[in-house]
Design a protein that fits this description.
Layout (H helix, E strand, L loop, with lengths): L1 H10 L15 H6 L5 E6 L5 H13 L4 E7 L3 H6 L9 H4 L7
Parallel strand pairs: 1-2
């Protein structure tokens, strides 16, 4: 696997690896050691906060360089009813109670 990753990175500007859920199997922890950056994907309203916290801690302890977190499968209509945004614009434009000038 390491040889393949090095060969791919020599031939391509960007190599994206998609791994199984972090706490389910150890594959991701092996891959993050070889990755330049790690993006953690969280399924909106399905992934528990304690899972996210434990996973991010485990990634950091494994030497991952975390570039960010992405929320997937966000229900914009429901999320808008929860008071964060109307679903029609960016958070900072629609949520003065959370973002001040």
């Amino acid at each position: 696997m390491y040889g393949l990753l090095h060969q791919l990175s020599a031939n391509y500007d960007l190599v994206v690896l998609d791994s199984p859920p972090l706490l389910a199997v150890s594959d991701a922890l092996v891959l993050v050691r070889e990755a330049d950056r790690t993006i953690f994907v969280v399924r909106w309203e399905k992934t528990r906060r304690d899972f996210v916290t434990a996973s991010l801690r485990q990634l950091a302890e494994s030497g991952a360089k975390i570039a960010g977190l992405v929320m997937s499968q966000v229900d914009l209509k429901k999320q808008g009813r929860d008071g964060y945004t109307s679903g029609s614009g960016y958070y900072y434009g629609d949520s003065p109670k959370y973002y001040s000038d």
